[in-house]
Amino acid sequence: MAAAHRVAAIAVSGSPGRRDVLQNLAAVTGCCNTGGMERQEVPGASGLLSEVAAAEAELRAAADRDRGGDGAGVAAGDELAAYFDEVVGADQKIEPRDWMPEAYRKGLVRQIAQHAHSEIIGMQPEGNWLSRAPSLARKAILLAKVQDEAGHGLYLYAAAETLGVSRAELFDKLLSGRQKYSSIFNYPTLTWADVGAIGWLVDGAAIVNQVPLCRCSYGPYARAMIRICKEESFHQRQGFDLLYTLARGTDEQRAMAQDAVDRWWYPSLAMFGPPDAESTHSTQSMAWKIKRFSNDELRQKFVDMTAQQAEVLGLNLPDEALGYDQPSGHWRYTQPDFGELMRVISGDGPCNRQRIEHRRRAHDDGAWVRDSAAAYAAKQRTRKAAA
Ligand code: 3HC
To answer: CA 158, 163, 169, 175 torsion: positive or negative?
Structure first.
């Protein structure tokens, strides 16, 4: 048998049965914003949406609760730090007006900017297929999805701006290589099935990573993530639906779907970042409740969810070691090549140069739009002042 093998074959004993997975989800899919959109459900997806809804309710409750003042009465130094710790400890939100440790601010700018850049660069691999989508409906769906990514980038740049950095500064750091974007977008989209694999696996990994960020301690980031996660869930479903269709098509279509899954599986696992022991920021970031789970915890959660979805798709995940481990309730899997992750992060992935060159060109081409918008805003200000 080829390196890839049927998950179903190893899943028969002990793994949660497909029927159970689907039945358990039936009760909650009705309140999911994409419920009923597809002809099949995506195991695990609705649970994530319920988590987003719970985080949204928590955010509203936090806004309604009395934090005991906004820190304005707190004198300085240690008292400010104690107040900050208290707010974070009580699962309240830190807002832009609040005092915060400089390292907290810098860490947030680093993460939010990297996240925003990922959304914007992430438009390229799929944008590549907009003009070659196989039907009008698929084209409209893909167009909507790529536009959503642009919107996500904008919410996130706006969240970063509340921390005292300008958008121009962030663009400059991206284009000069001083800020990163996700490794995953440095891989090429070779066939139409890659659009499905990105939706299913890349957006699937993104949503597993990002749902906990809806409970991040920094208010503007948490609020942006609520909306982003709701849209990401639609993205994942469209990828699942696309692959589901191909997997039930001709032999060639099925082979194309399988090939795409084979190529995107390990890069998707690597998206979660280095293993915990090598993660620079996780410990501090979790102490400040920016991150809620470690890289390895989220990677495992993604595997657990995706292995079951692969069964429903009838496609193989390319991992001979994959199997359900009854005692732990988790799936065993082979780790991605973290050496490759580091090479891609440091600029040596298959498409790094192409992605940045394309972004730079788009930025230069858009200069007249930015100049016009600035001139219009200045004219409005002058008129208002004169009135
Ligand atoms: N790609 C690029 N860089 C990565 C990376 C990846 N997959 N994983 C880790 N890194 C970088 C980190 O940024 C850090 O570099 P730095 O110190 O120069 O900033 C270094 O590797 C060490 O990693 P850490 O584990 O210490 O970093 P974090 O604690 O920040 O964890 C993370 C990394 C899990 C990506 C976290 O930053 C995070 O959750 N970010 C928010 C979500 C995000 O940015 N997702 C990107 C994908 S967005 C997307 O996919 C769009 C969707 O539409 C598909």
So the answer is: negative
The rounded distance, in Å, linking the Cα atoms of 288 and 104 is 8
What's the pLDDT score for residue 347? Answer: 95
Segment 254-279 mean pLDDT: 98
Radius of gyration of the chain (CA): 22
How crowded is the C-beta side of 98, counted as CA atoms within 13 Å?
A: 27
For residue 180 and ligand 1, the question of a CB distance below 6 A is answered with: yes
282 lines ligand 1 (CB under 6 A): yes
Residue whose entry in the numeric block shows the structure tokens 């949406």: 49
**Residue partners of 160: CB distance under 8 A and separation at least 6:** 108, 109, 112, 113, 116, 167, 170
Distance CA 245, CA 52 (A): 28
Looking at residue 28, its pLDDT comes to 29
Neighbouring CB atoms inside 10 A of 6's CB total 14
* Ligand 1 mutation pick, 183, 280, 298, max ligand atoms within 8 A of CB: 280
Structure tokens at 382: 């002058």
Structure token pair of residue 73: 């009465």
Is a pLDDT exceeding 60 seen at residue 39? no
pTM of the model: 0.87
Instruction: Please state, in angstroms and rounded to a whole number, the distance separating the CA atoms of residues 235 and 202.
Output: 10
Query: Which of 104, 109, 111 is the pocket-test mutation for ligand 1 (most atoms within 8 Å of CB)?
Result: 111
Of the candidates 208, 222, 217, the one whose C-alpha atom is nearest the C-alpha of residue 56 is: 222
Exposure string for 256-275, b = 16+ CB within 10 A, e = fewer: bbbbbbbbbbbbbbbbbbbe
323: helix, strand or coil? strand
Q: How far is the CA of 363 from the centre of ligand 1 (A)?
A: 23
Residues contacting 87, CB < 8 A, separation 6+: 67, 71, 93, 94, 98, 217
pLDDT tens-digit series, residues 52-100: 888 888 888 877 765 655 555 555 667 899 999 999 999 999 999 999 9
**Percentage with pLDDT > 90 across the chain:** 78
CA distance 67 to 296: 33
Contact 112, 221 (CB under 8 A): yes
